[in-house]
Amino acid sequence: MNVVVTPSAAPGLQNSAVPDIGSIGVIGAGQMGNGIAHVCALAGLTVVLADVKAEALEKAMATMGRNMDRQVNRGTIGAEDKMLAMSHITTTTDYAAFSDCDMVIECATEKEEVKDAIFKALLPNLKSSCLLASNTSSISITRLAAKTDRPAKFIGMHFMNPVPVMKLVEIIRGIATDEPTFQAVQALAGKLAKVTAVSEDFPAFIVNRVLVPMINEAIYALYEGVGSVVAIDTSMKLGANHPMGPLELADFIGLDTCLSIMQVLYEGLSDSKYRPCPLLVKYVEAGWLGRKTNRGFYDYMQTPPRPTR
Length: 309
Ligand code: NAD
Fold this sequence. Notes:
N-(1-d-carboxylethyl)-l-norvaline Dehydrogenase, domain 2; 12 strands; Rossmann fold; alpha/beta; two-stranded antiparallel sheet; 15% strand
């Protein structure tokens, strides 16, 4: 790992060694993991992408290829940039492949026990200087970090979906996160051409603290019969100028992820105003998770997608 000293470090921190991140591990090859691998590879980083499921890795490589083709067709990258970026990515189901990584970003399923198990299995494979980040949408960074051997080198790096398109990355410091780790992650976000917003470590941070209760409220409006799926989405698109309706957006995010975020808000803030709508729970129990399973508030096997109620 190269070590650089950032001239922009705060007074008193000028001598802090800020790690330069050249190789990155990404755990979880779902919609977020493949987006993060995509932008990192295009920025010239070496990427190791892991998942428990080999088929998720194959799907992620195909998705990245297609998404980069779209960028080539739009002229935002050249065909040779795509070739080079794809050659920077290797896939694995074995954490031993992470031994040279300068940083690992965890973006597996939004369940704390899943993330805890991943870090436990991952840690023995890492060099001691390796930084850790979680892309969690809502879970406490301090709590995830405390269960690792390096809470000072652990941070929240919350990308938005779709990663190649969305400009924002929320940066969340755990209580123990040190300044060089914070500076290194800010520098990485800059390399990826992202804009950062710093959030305190409270349930769901900033974006999802505001966004997901709004989505949950839209599901309550559907549940109580205030409006149909189409009426609710049309109202928010044309009446509030949102680019996507809240139910369409819920399907895009993943209904399991939306439910997990509401549960974290409900339990973390002990406030009944965050109770997840029973209809959201029912959809998740049915395995109707939105776009990723082809069915949520809309059925994506139909063209155009047809509301499911
Ligand atoms: P997803 O369901 O698309 O992908 C999750 C991936 O994690 C799957 O491929 C799954 O096989 C894999 N996985 C599960 N257990 C694993 C394990 N033990 N080891 C390795 N891989 C494992 O989910 P997603 O939407 O990509 O979300 C991933 C993370 O990103 C979550 O923490 C979520 O909250 C966060 N996030 C999601 C969004 C969004 O809009 N979907 C936005 C920002 C952040």
